């Protein structure tokens, strides 16, 4: 008596049909080789690290765009009091500004110029970028910047 269920799990044919789904790579960086987590010559970050940063930035862009749409809807809403609208307009300006910063970061990820310190041009460590994807300065320059 053959146990069909047990055989199916070990059947190499079944494993092969499952493989394409496991190997699917998001079409984010068409210029990158997909075979391994290689280091990119123009940046200190690997393609996998850049992908993680890009996803985080895209998520931030998504939420800011949504927030902007909500604010604009509120400004155009006749039910919202005029006195409240100046505050909303100020919010729109600030969200637009931060959206531009996120877009700029995403552009630099695409151009592989992301992760350089604006102050000294050195490579900002991945751990710092992961925690703060919009960081423009290395730790030293940030400290100098904050102290004036
Ligand atoms: Zn620096």
TrEMBL record:
SUPFAM superfamilies linked to this entry: Glucocorticoid receptor-like (DNA-binding domain)
Ranges of residues in domain Zinc finger DksA/TraR C4-type: 113-146
Protein keywords: Metal-binding, Zinc, Zinc-finger
One family name in Pfam for this protein: zf-dskA_traR
InterPro entries per record: Znf_DskA_TraR, Znf_DskA_TraR_CS
UniProt keyword Metal-binding present: yes
Domain of life according to the entry: Bacteria
Residues in dksA C4-type zinc fingers: 117-141
PANTHER family recorded: GENERAL STRESS PROTEIN 16O, RNA POLYMERASE-BINDING TRANSCRIPTION FACTOR DKSA-RELATED
Entry protein name: DnaK suppressor protein
Species assigned in the record: Streptosporangium album
């Amino acid at each position: 008596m053959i146990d069909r269920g047990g055989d199916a799990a070990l059947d190499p044919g079944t494993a092969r049909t499952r493989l394409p789904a496991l190997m699917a790579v998001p079409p984010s960086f068409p210029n990158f080789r997909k075979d391994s987590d290689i280091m990119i010559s123009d940046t200190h970050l690997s393609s996998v690290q850049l992908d993680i940063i890009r996803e985080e930035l895209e998520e931030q862009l998504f939420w800011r765009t949504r927030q902007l749409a909500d604010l604009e809807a509120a400004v155009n809403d006749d039910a919202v009091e005029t006195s409240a609208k100046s505050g909303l307009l100020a919010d729109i300006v600030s969200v637009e500004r931060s959206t531009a910063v996120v877009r700029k970061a995403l552009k630099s990820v695409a151009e592989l110029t992301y992760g350089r310190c604006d102050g000294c041009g050195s490579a900002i460590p991945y751990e710092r970028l992961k925690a703060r994807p919009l960081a423009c300065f290395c730790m030293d320059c940030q400290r100098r910047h904050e102290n004036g």
